[in-house]
């Protein structure tokens, strides 16, 4: 399976997908969060073909998500700061799966605060003052990095963004 | 490109990936958030092959992420509650792309609170009392839905979860 490049899309989500938008890639990152470091550990955990794993690890290192140790012995792969910053995404995806695709025997994993052992909050969207925002309460505002429509036809559909009173500009 | 099934993985993240873990799928969901409804709108926005789009839309409807209208005229696809609940994931992915894969000409989109026009906060992980948690401050605790190792070799690596003082049980 060839990884598709979405780098021509002028969209930050598409940029992110160009790095992590592939099944195995996110599961490798998950395993790195769980402390796996070596090729054989990832391979055993995921049951993935060695050439596919090799390719995905290489891409993650190139993208700066994983750092590969270059010393003697087996190389180790560790999350960089950029990789660690994926955690809210992974936890939000895990919580969504817990809610909508649950295990019949109960919760699989609970993420807890190390300090007091209490479960973390569901990852959500908050206003500047901390209020929780629901999807319809959020609007997308185009910035200088967004190319004009016509100039770049495959960008985010501008006609859907902040037109007039916010009718179709709502992110809903 | 065949969509890989990760349903045999006993992991909520893998379950989520089985629904949305493919490039086009998440970009279709993004466009639905921006108000696109019809096949031709998605096709024009994404420049995607019609048979691929058709397949992905069908899968999203089957998964309960999109609802397909069955009236006269062109069918319309709308996000269900389950689909709307993907928003924190999409926004977190967009913010990660803004930070680590930015456009050279500035921010592409800013998500703002409809009420006051102020930018939303970065999506992050919070403790029960609202404190922001960094990756090393979070631990994963196995629940009843997690099968035992040995019984199911491809589950989340149990050896990495909450062993003793939290050393390798940290999600980091």
Q: Report the C-alpha radius of gyration of chain A, rounded.
A: 19 Å
- Report low-confidence residues of chain A grouped into runs of 5 or more: 148-172
Shape annotation of chain A = globular
Biggest sheet strand line-up of chain A: 1-2
Task: Estimate the strand proportion of chain A.
Answer: 5-15%
Report on the biggest sheet of chain A: 2 strands, antiparallel
Key structural traits:
homodimer; 172 residues; alpha+beta; two-stranded antiparallel ribbon; two-stranded antiparallel sheet; 6 helices; 6 strands; 34% helix; globular; disordered C terminus
Description:
The structure is a homodimer of 172-residue chains. With 172 residues, the first copy, chain A, is an alpha+beta fold. The first copy, chain A, is built from six helices and six strands. Chain A has helices at 12-20, 23-33, 39-46, 50-62, 81-84, 87-100, and strands at 66-68, 77-79, 109-113, 125-126, 132-133, 138-142. In chain A, the strands form two sheets. In chain A, strands 1-2 form a two-stranded antiparallel ribbon. A two-stranded antiparallel ribbon of chain A has the order 4-5. The longest helix of chain A has 14 residues, at 87-100. The radius of gyration of chain A is 19 Å and the shape is globular. Chain A starts with 11 loop residues before the first helix and ends in a 30-residue tail after the last strand. Residues 148-172 of chain A have low confidence and may be disordered. The interface between A and B is large, with 104 and 104 residues. Strand 3 of chain A pairs antiparallel with strand 6 (138-142) of chain B, so a sheet runs across the interface.
């Amino acid at each position: 399976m060839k990884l598709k490049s979405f780098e021509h899309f002028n969209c930050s989500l598409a940029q992110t997908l160009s790095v992590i938008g592939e099944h195995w890639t996110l599961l490798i990152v998950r395993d790195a969060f769980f402390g796996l470091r070596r090729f054989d550990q990832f391979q055993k955990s995921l049951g993935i073909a060695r050439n596919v794993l090799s390719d995905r690890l290489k891409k993650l290192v190139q993208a700066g998500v994983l750092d590969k140790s270059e010393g003697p012995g087996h190389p180790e792969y560790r999350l960089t700061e950029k990789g660690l910053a994926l955690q809210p995404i992974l936890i939000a995806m895990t919580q969504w799966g817990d809610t909508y695709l649950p295990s019949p025997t109960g919760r699989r994993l609970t993420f807890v605060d190390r300090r007091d052992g209490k479960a973390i909050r569901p990852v959500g969207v908050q206003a500047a003052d901390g209020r929780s925002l629901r999807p319809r309460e959020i609007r997308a505002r185009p910035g200088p990095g967004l190319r004009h429509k016509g100039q770049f036809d495959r960008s985010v559909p501008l006609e859907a963004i902040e037109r007039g009173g916010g009718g179709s500009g709502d992110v809903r």
